[in-house]
């Protein structure tokens, strides 16, 4: 999203900036991660905010939890299909390609996809994955545990969600490096708006997945996501091969980096709040609550956009048909109108209504229960096997205003007992 800012951040800070003129996408606001002080000022002073680019185009931003909730629940007025993910519809890949993914669909097409996929991601079918996920986490930690150190991102946060996804799809684990490279290339293409690079990846992924679908059909592989999607029926209709490929493209994009980033920034948050970490070592049954607070605190998907389908008022501002609206989930998850002491990390917060999985409504994260399960099992095994964790170097932030994540985090620890599944 290369654009010149209308103001100089070198001479402005989150407390002195003229919020009316702020271009929140300017990378200089994001050098230290999400700009929470600025978000707080925007929630208070310009909660529905217009930014005009030098070329005359512009976009709205909404920062309050309630406005994000409202927009997310009204897909008739706030369309995804007219440009739901990014501000410029063709920014990363052409909108027509994006529209093959359900994140960028409106009803009734979205409803059909969602019904088919929801059958696969029911809480009951997700719960059955726990044992396999625990075995995977155990194997992953086994690889480095004796050394008492690791790079938490590449050794833990990356392989676990990617491996879970590949296992779900029924594709060979030997292909993990290929998948990793694809996700890195997509992440980079999204970050620097390199549409040809993203299209190359989608092309390669499509070819690979078509082969896998053919192989699994021939071998009658049982119970893989591919086969369940192939056989799932809604109103007598099934997904065709191209549609299944698009679903996997979406899962690789939506289900992978997100879980990785929450795992990595989640551990960093706990290291920055040692009293919470000690409580969890003493009583791991606090983990489900702690994970909700980690989700709220890190809210790794900072924003998604929608397009207005008619003139509409939000927060007293007149939004015109065709205008782009960016929902800042990272801000909604810290909204003081919803969370007492919103800037305090509190693992005892009762069921925080965070917006890490979006603002609710039709597009609410379909993988939320799977993500929660992966995070709980991963942190249970970390607490069990890695004691006295401390940073062994400076964590490296992914330079992005969209994904809040880490690209590296060296840690050291005292190895704990292995009480995994195989014992
Ligand atoms: C901590 C991890 C995760 C986070 C923070 C996250 C976040 C999100 C967000 C913010 C949205 C958009 C919601 C909206 O537009 O209203 C979304 C949608 C989605 N997510 Fe996740 N996600 C995570 C994990 C997963 C996993 C593990 C999967 C599946 C393997 C997944 C699959 C999806 C799908 C399919 C959608 C599109 C739903 C639709 O358009 O109806 N996500 N996610």
Automatic annotation (TrEMBL):
Known cofactor(s): heme
InterPro entries associated with the record: Cyt_P450 (IPR001128), Cyt_P450_B (IPR002397), Cyt_P450_sf (IPR036396)
Organism domain of life: Bacteria
Alphabetically ordered keywords of this record: Heme, Iron, Metal-binding, Monooxygenase, Oxidoreductase
Keyword Iron-sulfur: no
Family stated for the protein in its record: Belongs to the cytochrome P450 family.
Protein's UniProt name: Cytochrome P450
Organism of origin: [Mycobacterium] wendilense
């Amino acid at each position: 999203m290369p654009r010149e800012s209308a103001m100089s951040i070198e001479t402005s800070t989150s407390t002195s900036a003229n919020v009316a003129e702020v271009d929140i996408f300017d990378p200089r606001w994001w050098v230290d991660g999400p700009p929470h002080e600025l978000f707080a000022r925007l929630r208070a002073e310009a909660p529905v905010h217009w930014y005009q680019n030098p070329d005359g185009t512009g976009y709205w931003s909404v920062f309050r939890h309630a406005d994000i909730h409202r927009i997310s629940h009204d897909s008739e007025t706030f369309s995804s299909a007219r440009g739901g993910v990014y501000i410029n519809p063709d920014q990363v890949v052409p909108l027509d390609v994006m529209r093959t993914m359900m994140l960028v669909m409106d009803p009734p097409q979205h409803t059909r996809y969602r019904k088919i996929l929801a059958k696969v991601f029911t809480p009951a079918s997700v719960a059955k994955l726990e044992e396999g996920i625990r075995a995977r986490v155990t194997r992953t930690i086994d690889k480095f545990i004796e050394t008492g150190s690791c790079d938490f991102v590449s050794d833990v946060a990356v392989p676990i969600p990617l491996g879970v996804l590949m296992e779900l799809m029924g594709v060979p684990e030997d292909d993990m490096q290929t998948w990793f490279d694809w996700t890195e290339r997509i992440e980079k293409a999204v970050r620097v708006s390199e549409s040809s690079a993203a299209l190359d990846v989608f092309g390669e992924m499509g070819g690979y997945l078509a082969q896998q679908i053919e192989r699994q059909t021939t071998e009658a592989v049982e119970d893989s996501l591919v086969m369940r999607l192939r056989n799932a029926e809604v109103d007598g209709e099934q997904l065709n091969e191209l549609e299944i490929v698009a679903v996997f493209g979406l899962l690789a994009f939506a289900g992978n980096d997100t879980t990785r980033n929450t795992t990595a920034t989640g551990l960093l948050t706990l290291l920055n709040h040692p009293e919470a970490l000690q409580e969890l070592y003493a009583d791991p049954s606090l983990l489900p609550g702690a994970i909700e607070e980690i989700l709220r605190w890190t809210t790794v998907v900072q924003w998604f956009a929608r397009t207005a389908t008619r003139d509409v008022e939000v927060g007293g501002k007149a939004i015109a048909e065709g205008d782009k609206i960016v929902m800042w989930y990272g801000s909604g998850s810290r909204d003081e109108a919803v969370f007492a002491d919103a800037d305090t990390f509190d693992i005892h917060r009762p069921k925080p209504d965070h917006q890490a999985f979006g603002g609710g409504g039709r597009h609410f994260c379909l993988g939320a229960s799977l993500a929660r399960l992966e995070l709980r099992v991963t942190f249970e095994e970390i607490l069990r096997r890695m004691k006295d964790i401390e940073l062994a170097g400076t964590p490296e932030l992914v330079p992005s205003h969209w994904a809040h994540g880490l690209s590296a985090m060296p840690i050291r620890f005292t190895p704990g007992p292995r009480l995994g599944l195989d014992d």
